[in-house]
C-alpha cells in the first residue's frame, strides 16, 4: 500500500467547488492514484496535536468534529460516520511502543477532526472504511516524525492506508485574497519541497528549517507539516515520491499533495 500526504487547506474544501483540490479529491479514485481500496485508514492530522503520541480508539462510529469557527452553517451539518478502527489503533500503539516512543495514550471519545473527515468525505464518500487518527507532537522535530512513520511501515503490508493530512505551506497570518499573486516565500518553499521530495532528499526535508528557503515563514508552527514526515517515513528511505496534485489559494496556501511508493 502506498502512503499519502494530502494538503487539506481551508475547511471550505468540503463545500466549495471553486477549490481545485476539491475536484481532484472527488475524482482521485478514477485517476487510479492508489492501487487498491484500503482495509483501514490511519490519518495523521495537523489538527491533532498532543504532548505525547495519542491514538483515538473508537469502538463504533466516529463522531464528526467541527474544529473551526465562523464558517457557513451548512458545514456544521455535514457528517462523516466512518466506523472506528480499534484493532488498528491497538496495532499502532504496539508498533510505537516497540519502537521506543514511550507510552502511547488512547482516547476513546475523540472522533475525526476536519483534517481527517474533510478530505476523506471527498475521497471515500461512502464512509465505509474504518478510520483512526494518530496525533503529531509539534514540539518535536521532523526526524522524530519520520521515525514514527518508519515504525508504522508494517501496517502497509496489512492493507492500511497511512495518510498525512496538513499543508505544504501553512501561514494563516500571511494569507491574501484568492486569485492574487503567489507570495515569493511560499513559492520558493513549495518549489524546494517538490524538488527535494521528487529527488529523494528526505533527510533535507526532515531538516527543512535549515535546508529549505523560508521554512519558518512557510510553517511558523510545524503541526501541518509533520504529517508529511510520517507519511514519508512510513514509505521508507528508498520510496519514490510523486506529486499528485498542485494548486494554490489565498496567495500563500499550497495544496501540493504527494504519494510515496516503496521501491521493490
Q: Radius of gyration, Cα only, in angstroms? A: 17 Å
**The CATH superfamily title:** LigB-like
Oligomer: single chain
Class from secondary-structure proportions: alpha/beta
Family: Belongs to the DODA-type extradiol aromatic ring-opening dioxygenase family.
Keywords: Dioxygenase, Metal-binding, Oxidoreductase, Zinc
GO molecular function: ferrous iron binding; oxidoreductase activity, acting on single donors with incorporation of molecular oxygen, incorporation of two atoms of oxygen; zinc ion binding
Pfam family, one: LigB
Features:
single chain; 264 residues; alpha/beta; Protocatechuate 4,5-dioxygenase, Chain B; six-stranded mixed beta sheet; two-stranded parallel sheet
Concise account of the structure shown:
By secondary structure, the chain is α/β, with parallel strands linked by helices. 30% of the residues lie in helices and 19% in strands. It has helices spanning 20-27, 86-98, 114-123, 142-152, 184-198, 202-206, 208-211, 215-218, 226-235, and strands at residues 3-7, 40-49, 54-56, 105-107, 131-136, 160-166, 240-245, 248-249, 253-254, 257-261.
Amino acid at each position: 500500500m502506498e502512503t499519502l500526504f494530502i494538503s487539506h487547506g481551508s475547511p471550505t474544501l468540503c463545500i466549495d467547488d471553486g477549490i481545485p483540490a476539491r475536484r481532484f479529491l472527488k475524482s482521485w479514485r478514477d485517476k487510479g492514484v492508489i492501487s487498491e481500496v484500503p482495509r483501514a485508514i490511519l490519518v495523521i492530522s495537523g489538527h491533532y496535536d498532543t504532548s505525547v503520541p495519542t491514538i483515538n480508539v473508537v469502538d463504533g462510529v466516529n463522531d464528526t468534529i467541527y474544529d473551526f469557527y465562523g464558517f457557513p452553517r451548512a458545514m456544521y451539518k455535514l457528517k462523516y460516520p466512518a466506523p472506528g478502527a480499534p484493532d488498528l489503533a491497538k496495532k499502532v500503539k504496539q508498533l510505537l511502543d516497540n519502537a521506543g516512543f514511550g507510552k502511547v495514550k488512547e482516547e476513546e471519545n475523540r472522533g475525526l477532526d476536519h483534517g481527517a473527515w474533510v478530505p476523506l468525505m471527498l475521497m471515500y464518500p461512502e464512509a465505509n472504511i474504518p478510520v483512526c487518527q494518530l496525533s503529531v507532537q509539534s514540539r518535536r522535530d521532523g526526524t522524530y516524525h519520520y521515525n514514527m512513520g518508519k515504525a508504522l511501515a508494517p501496517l502497509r503490508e496489512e492493507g492500511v492506508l497511512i495518510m498525512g493530512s496538513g499543508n505544504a505551506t501553512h501561514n494563516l497570518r500571511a494569507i491574501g485574497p484568492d486569485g492574487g499573486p503567489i507570495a515569493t516565500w511560499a513559492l520558493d518553499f513549495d518549489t524546494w519541497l517538490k524538488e527535494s521530495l521528487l529527488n529523494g532528499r528526505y533527510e533535507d526535508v526532515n531538516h527543512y528549517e535549515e535546508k529549505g528557503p523560508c521554512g519558518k515563514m512557510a510553517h511558523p508552527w510545524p503541526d501541518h507539516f509533520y504529517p508529511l514526515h510520517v507519511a514519508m517515513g512510513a514509505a521508507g528511505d528508498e520510496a519514490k515520491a510523486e506529486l499528485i496534485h498542485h494548486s494554490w489559494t489565498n496567495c500563500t496556501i499550497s495544496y501540493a499533495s504527494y504519494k510515496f511508493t516503496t521501491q521493490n
